User: Fold these one by one.
Assistant:
Number 1:
Amino acid sequence: MKELIKDIKKKSPTIKFFKTYVFNKYVLTLTGFLVWMIFFDSTSFLVINELNGEITRYENQLNFYKTEYEKNDRFFRKLMNNKQEKEKYARENYFMKKPNEEIFILVVDSSKIAKK
């Protein structure tokens, strides 16, 4: 039986390959190092990938807020520089009125619209 195992070991090229290359101390050390750096280290590939995703989300949020700020700034400048715009905005949003003027607010029943 022992002789059969010895013959298999001698004749098998895969066992020789594993013995010489895969179980080499340098290959095992390098493999352990790579596994440690990819999965377990505090600056692992997975953590860095997650942080890059957060950075991308925050950059998208920043761009959104910048465009909203620019849009609101244009509206504010238009509102402050034009008297008719101020009056229109006040009438539409705060229901302000001129003397001797009446305002009618129409309320639509949303339940009747949904049924149709």
Note: The mean pLDDT is 83.
Number 2:
Amino acid sequence: MSITLTETAANRVKTFLENRGKGIGLRLGVKTSGCSGLAYVLEFVDVLNEDDLVFEQQGVKVIIDQKSLVYLNGIELDYVKEGLNEGFKYNNPNVKESCGCGESFHV
């Protein structure tokens, strides 16, 4: 089981957590949504749940629930700036197809 954060993503998460003033890490998960079936969920974590798995990358804790791990195993989370847009980018080897708008995916 592996989850990878690029250096850029790790630095961005650290900055977000510092500005927020609390939190133990970043939750990465999936939810049912969109036309392709699944969408990514990112949120800050203040308290761990019983079924959470914790991966530490470059000083950042990435928390994933066991149900989401099957869809996220091997993912690389990056933070990119493209023109005026910036945000997290998911490089997920499990994705078979994604919708045209990029909001959802299917494995």
Note: The two ends are 17 Å apart (CA to CA).
